[in-house]
Amino acid sequence: MTDSLSQRGPTLMARMRRHRSGERGFTLIELLVVVTIIGILAGVAVVNVRFAQRKARESALRENLFEMRKAIDNFYADKQHYPSSLEELVPNYIRRIPKDPMTDKQDWQPVMEDPLSLDPDQPPAETDPQATGGQPGVSDVKSSAKGTTLDNVPYSDL
């Protein structure tokens, strides 16, 4: 019985050695190339993710300004004068005054329209201070956030 093991043993060992040397693994160069490619892709992803939140805030800012301006226009269309403050728009024209997504506060800058000042596009006869109540009103709204958008437009100019 020992003769058969001794004869089988070296043959089995020789086969295992041949099998191991026949296996091919990854070389150091291949591993470095893969790690470099993964690093480049991760770097590109980090840059895109970093600006994604800012893009979302800027988009929300534009949408908030659009909705508030639309509410001001609807108020003017109904009452033929601008609201005296943004709070006058709530709840009939807008549910609530939104927060400025850039500052995370309700710190909008209202642009007041003085009905007594003459509009250069209208002749003086059409300006009627009695129709507007003679009071200035909010004709537009702007963001009070400092800085510029990713397109280099100041937030206050949106």
Give me a quick take on this structure.
By secondary structure, this protein is mainly alpha-helical.
List the helices and strands and how they pair.
Blueprint: H1 2-22, H2 28-79, E1 109-113, H3 129-132, E2 137-142
Antiparallel strand pairs: 1-2
Task: Tell me what the structure shows.
- This protein has 158 residues and is mainly alpha-helical.
- It has a domain at 28-119 and 130-146: Glycoprotein, Type 4 Pilin (2-Layer Sandwich).
- The protein is 49% helix and 7% strand.
- It has three helices and two strands.
- The N and C termini lie far apart (93 Å).
- Mean pLDDT is 80; it is low at 123-132.
Key features?
mainly alpha; Glycoprotein, Type 4 Pilin; two-stranded antiparallel sheet; 158 residues; 49% helix; rod-shaped; 7% strand
Describe the largest sheet.
2 strands, antiparallel
Mean pLDDT: 80
CATH topology of one domain: Glycoprotein, Type 4 Pilin
Helix and strand pattern: HHEHE
Kindly name the structural category.
Answer: mainly alpha
**DSSP summary, beta strand count:** 2
Q: What proportion of the residues is helical, as a percent range?
A: 40-55%
Helix tally equals 3
Approximately what portion of the residues adopt beta-strand conformation? Answer: 5-15%
Low-confidence stretches: 123-132
Q: Measure the end-to-end span.
A: 93 Å
Any idea what the radius of gyration is?
Answer: 36 Å
CATH top level label of one domain: Alpha Beta
Coarse shape: rod-shaped
- Based on the structure given, which CATH architecture of one domain is correct? 2-Layer Sandwich
Q: What's the arrangement of strands in the largest beta sheet?
A: 1-2
